[in-house]
Amino acid sequence: MVCTTAKKGEECIFMSTKGCTFNGGICHEIIEQCDGCNRSAEFSSGWYCTACPDPSVKWKVGNCNIATHVKTTVKTKQIKINPLKASKRGNG
């Protein structure tokens, strides 16, 4: 349904015929860590995330998993291989 509270005119999964069913009855505005994200949009009542109704919850544990401005790096661990075992594997 179309939101009638904070994000007026935007499709929202929390809207029902009785109003907003999200915790507190309204979406929460973005926080500082969300600045620069492509998912944040400005509405008449302020800046809101288009993907998450409460962005502060996404940032509690670490980086937000849906943030477009945060680049994650995958660390690969170098495993030391025993040269004797490696030579035996190569011969087979």
Termini gap: 63 Å
> Mean pLDDT score, rounded?
85
Q: Which bin fits the share of residues in helices?
A: 10-25%
User: Could you tell me the strand content as a percent range?
Assistant: 5-15%
Q: Tell me the overall shape.
A: elongated
Largest sheet descriptor: 2 strands, antiparallel
Record keyword descriptors for this entry.
alpha+beta, 92 residues, two-stranded antiparallel sheet, elongated
Give a nutshell description of this structure:
With 92 residues, the protein is an alpha+beta fold.
What is the element layout, followed by pairings?
Layout: E1 15-16, E2 19-20, E3 40-43, E4 46-49, H1 55-58, H2 83-91
Antiparallel strand pairs: 1-2, 3-4
How does this model look, in words?
The chain has 92 residues and is α+β, with helices and mostly antiparallel strands. It has one domain (15-91). It is built from 2 helices and 4 strands. It has helices at residues 55-58, 83-91, and strands spanning 15-16, 19-20, 40-43, 46-49. The model has no long low-confidence stretch (mean pLDDT 85).
